[in-house]
Amino acid sequence: MRKRSRQNLKSPEQELRIFRVRALLALLVVFALTGLLMGRLAYLQIVQHEVYTTRSEKNRVRVEPLPPTRGLIYDRNGELLAENRPTYNLTLVRERVEDLDATLNRLVEILELPPEEVEAFRVRSRQRQRPFQPALLMSDLDEGQIARLAVNRHLLPGVEVEAQLLRYYPDAEVMAHALGYVGRINAEELARLDTGRYAGTHFIGKTGVERFYEDELHGESGLRKVETNARGRVLRELGRTDPTPGKDLTLTLDKKLQHLAYDLLDGRRGAIVAIEPATGGILAMVSAPGYDTNQFVTGIDVASYRGLQEDLDLPLYNRAIRGHYPPGSTIKPFLALAGLVEGVITPDDTIYDPGYFQLPNDKRRYRNWLRWGHGRVDLERSIAVSNNTYYYTLAHELGIDRIHANMTNFGFGTRVGHDIFGESRALMPSREWKRERYNQPWYPGETLSVGIGQGYWQITPLQLATATAVLANRGTWVKPRLAMRLGDEALPTPLADTPQDIELANEGWWDRVFSGMEKVISGREGTARRTGVGLEYRMGGKSGTAQVFSLGQDQKYNADELAERLRDHALFMAFAPIESPRIAVAVIVENAGGGSTHAAHLARAMTDAWLLDDQQPDAEQIREEMEEE
């Protein structure tokens, strides 16, 4: 029984049959999988050949942008004002970084960044124009930082130290407001820039001529094709298209005259603008105090920027083109011409000045600066002694409408510059302006204030210098410009957008106004007669004193009793030589007092420096003479 049971339990034939079935199934599975694998290989190698060839090539070959070399900036004599110096920048390609936060933390530690700079550092890591393009993390690395980065290079995939040219300003503080500066491209600028043209570029003009002539100075980007390894390191260059460098820019500025103007102000708040009347070329344009623009190129630190912002002297504020000041008596020659043009006065008409002017049926007295008056005054004497009563009378007869029209012809209340980025219009008040601004009518007393350059009237130093140049040209308009040449191409003269010339019915009127202005400096009664001592050429000028706050009717101005920032502003405008003007100057020194002393000497120093080649004024000596007076 046991033997029969074993035979029933084991059947070799059945086991063989099962084995064969299983082997066949296994073979079919193997063939099926092999077929699938071969089919997939055929699909990838044949059908998708071009796709994966391209992907493989992109992993091995990379196209990198080549930033152009920024154009240099020179003064009119070929002196370098803005150059490019070699430096090392830290860049990061996000696609090659596995853990961005960890990499940034490691970089912060290696570079020893202060806490207030860390957030800006992280923000810059996210700013770039396209994938696989490096983001600029830090500029102008020092030797210690470069060494520490080199030691830790194996821990920083996607991070590179690149050699590039960086903008540098040799005369940063003196040229700050005229040249402006370049800085890192921010997110807002990235959104509007041509990504192809600015590929690989990390800097862009922010202010001044750097901003205005950005397109010409920047140039065109190039490309290079490089082979890389698995870590993204460049192995060799396969080809390149060289970038087109930016055009060099030659300015009308004279470096020596610019330095003199800055030294004359000696850190005082103010501005000096000098223009060549024949061409409109700006010879000097200084706003003081200045600041170091090189800090902004590499990225100014938080503490330094806060210090500039909180400085009461406002070094970042460009007073030359944005400062608003009452023109004071500097506008009297222009107002005299308006009276002649409108037929309100003749050159020989006189008034009697008792020391004040009164409107009809008004008890208020509008006083002359000389309380007992100047007696009998005609046009030339009114300019020489700066008689207020004459101009109260003239303003009242002209009215604000005619004053506004005539003063606008000289550029007051308008943007006068051709290539001056950020210029303000200031304010030439009118009846319509006051109605829109205050919803009030214009009052006769306000016209009298405008007649002596006070009240609502506000000018910029550039406007005053421009009006002086037009006056010196006997009405021929020139728009102020900073650029003389772009590359080898000279800018056209005159410029297409130059305002219409001012024509007088009688050319002799210019001579009468000029005679009054010459007497300001060289006449026996001239308000700036001390400035004319030893003068070797004929010079016309006009002083001005701009009130910072209004005095009551019977109050007397006493600078010694006032806080320094409440004292009057000192102004002076001048041109020389009268017979063939080569320079027109406007000077404003804030809270310095009378223009005939504190500003006139600075204007004389500027004209001496430009007209007398063998004499270079001593700024320190001039300041000492001013203090003695």
TrEMBL record:
The keyword Glycosyltransferase does not apply. It is found in: Cell inner membrane; Cell membrane; Membrane. GO terms for biological process: cell wall organization; peptidoglycan biosynthetic process; proteolysis; regulation of cell shape. The chain crosses the membrane at residues 21-43. GO terms for molecular function: penicillin binding; peptidoglycan L,D-transpeptidase activity; serine-type D-Ala-D-Ala carboxypeptidase activity. Residues 66-238 form the Penicillin-binding protein dimerisation domain. It catalyses: Preferential cleavage: (Ac)2-L-Lys-D-Ala-|-D-Ala. Also transpeptidation of peptidyl-alanyl moieties that are N-acyl substituents of D-alanine. Its EC number is 3.4.16.4. Gene3D superfamilies: DD-peptidase/beta-lactamase superfamily (3.40.710.10), Penicillin-binding protein 2a (Domain 2) (3.90.1310.10), Penicillin-binding protein 2a, domain 3 (3.30.1390.30). The keyword Hydrolase applies. It is an enzyme of class 3 (hydrolase). Pathway: Cell wall biogenesis; peptidoglycan biosynthesis. GO terms for cellular component: plasma membrane. Keywords: Carboxypeptidase, Cell inner membrane, Cell membrane, Cell shape, Cell wall biogenesis/degradation, Hydrolase, Membrane, Peptidoglycan synthesis, Protease, Transmembrane, Transmembrane helix. It comes from the Bacteria. Residues 270-605 form the Penicillin-binding protein transpeptidase domain. The active site is at residue 329. It is a single-pass membrane protein. Its main location: membrane. NCBIfam families: pbp2_mrdA. Belongs to the transpeptidase family. MrdA subfamily. HAMAP family: MrdA_transpept. Catalyzes cross-linking of the peptidoglycan cell wall. PANTHER family: PEPTIDOGLYCAN D,D-TRANSPEPTIDASE (PTHR30627), PEPTIDOGLYCAN D,D-TRANSPEPTIDASE MRDA (PTHR30627:SF2). This is Peptidoglycan D,D-transpeptidase MrdA. The lineage of its organism: Bacteria, Pseudomonadati, Pseudomonadota, Gammaproteobacteria, Oceanospirillales.
